[in-house]
Design brief:
Elements lengths: L1 H20 L2 H5 L32 E6 L5 H14 L4 E6 L12 H10 L1 E4 L4 H11 L1 E9 L12 E7 L3 E11 L2 E7 L2 H17 L4 E6 L7 H13 L7 E6 H10 L6 E4 L1 H14 L7 E6 L2 E6 L16 H13 L3 H17 L13 H16 L1
Parallel strand pairs: 1-2, 1-3, 3-12, 5-10, 8-9, 8-10
Antiparallel strand pairs: 4-5, 4-11, 6-7, 11-12
Helix pairs in contact: 3-12, 6-7, 8-9, 10-11, 11-12
């Protein structure tokens, strides 16, 4: 404190001296200025350095990897082995535990990583925390890419469609309660804001992926307000793309019937949460099994790639989970990262496995273990390089 007062006092003295030397009398004595000593004024404290983002290599893409629960460890381990074999230039930000220890909620560091990297891939998660992740990262839609794998037995062999569904509203809003004993109520929420952004994304996706027909599945004949609102958003967006893509409306039951009877006619199917969930399961079943189906969640912040595999605690650690959907989801992710050549390698390796071998996990009629199927894919990739 005394030092500060001394400095202030010296500053006042210096100021009075400058005024004096500006007068005629003072200018004659200005030669004495050389006797004055410079005073060192302490510099203000520097601001605390801001938290730096992890350095990004020009040759590597950063991706957030969420291990998940149950069979998630086996799926993500298999994925990393395939990436290593294919020499994919990806730097993982791994989250083995996605929960915050203090709050027991989704980790803010995980959300921060996803927003920074804009791309993530995950194993199956506990539904409670998955809902929290969707809210924190603002995931509003899920895209399931349902396409037959040559060599895999399925009911039909001409399926090539995409199902896009809402994941936060509709019947899956999660608002339900007891009105009185014996009477329960579930609230179906449908906002124009969410319906509009889903509609915009659907038409954008169709344009970018050369899809020619969009079919919206609904029950607006019964639920005129909620389903009617979702349908109206799709109609309004369709008017902006007239001539570039065919738009059609189908009642949900009719859409299911058409998918089963003539799966080859489906291109892009879009629906609200519960309807879309049913369509995804039907389409993945037609292609041979849900574990074969890749997909990803959509947010304004980025994309999280995923499979249809559930936690399956009863299968965890038994080495029998099917990692095929995870590999195909990763191939989709690599195209988003502009690593098309690496995506082609993984995609071709999976397709070659199904065409040229009988290596299958139990869920699709085989006896192979997850590790054996993974090794087979890695071996095919290694042979490609030779």
């Amino acid at each position: 404190m005394n030092t500060i007062r001394k400095i202030r006092s010296i500053r006042r003295i210096d100021a009075s001296q400058l005024l004096y030397y500006s007068t005629e009398k003072g200018s004659k004595e200005s030669k004495k200025c050389s006797d004055l000593k410079a005073i060192a004024v302490p510099k203000p404290d520097k601001k605390k350095p801001q938290k730096k983002e992890p350095p990004k290599s020009k040759d590597q893409k950063r991706v957030t990897l969420i291990q998940g629960d149950g069979v998630g460890c086996e799926l993500t381990t298999a994925l990393r082995q395939v990436f290593e074999s294919a020499k994919v230039p990806v730097k993982w930000e791994v989250f083995v535990d996605y929960k915050d220890c203090e709050t027991n909620k989704i980790s803010p560091k995980l959300v921060e990583s996803l927003k920074r990297n804009k791309v993530g891939i995950k194993g199956p998660m506990d539904p409670v925390f998955l809902k929290q992740l969707r809210k924190a990262f603002d995931l509003y839609a899920f895209v399931a890419v349902c396409r037959n794998l040559k060599g895999q037995k399925s009911v039909y062999d001409k399926l090539d469609c995409v199902v896009i569904r809402d994941v936060i509203e509709g019947e899956y809003s999660g608002i339900e309660h007891n009105v009185v004993p014996g009477i329960l109520q579930s609230i179906k929420v449908c906002t124009s804001l969410n319906a509009d952004r889903i509609a915009r994304y659907v038409f954008k996706y169709a344009k970018e992926n050369q899809r020619k027909k969009i079919t919206v599945a609904h029950k607006a004949n019964i639920m005129q307000l909620t389903d009617g609102n979702f349908l109206e958003s799709m109609r309004q967006e369709a008017t902006k793309h007239f001539g570039s893509v065919t738009f059609e409306e189908r009642y949900m039951d009719t859409a299911c019937l058409n998918l089963v009877m003539q799966p080859g006619l489906s291109d892009v199917l879009v629906a609200s949460s519960m309807y879309g969930d049913v369509l995804v399961m039907m389409a993945s079943g037609i292609m041979g099994g849900k574990s074969l189906c890749p997909g990803f969640g959509v947010s304004k912040h980025g994309l999280i790639y995923d499979t249809l595999n559930k936690i399956n605690m009863n299968l965890a650690g038994k080495d029998i989970i099917n990692p095929t959907g995870m590999f195909l989801s990763a191939a989709l992710m690599l195209r988003t990262l502009k690593l098309n050549s690496h995506a082609d390698i993984i995609q071709c390796a999976v397709e070659q496995l199904f065409q040229d071998t009988d290596i299958r996990t139990p869920d699709v009629g085989g006896t192979a273990k997850c590790s054996e199927l993974t090794k087979a894919v890695c071996d095919i990739i290694s042979n490609m390089e030779e």
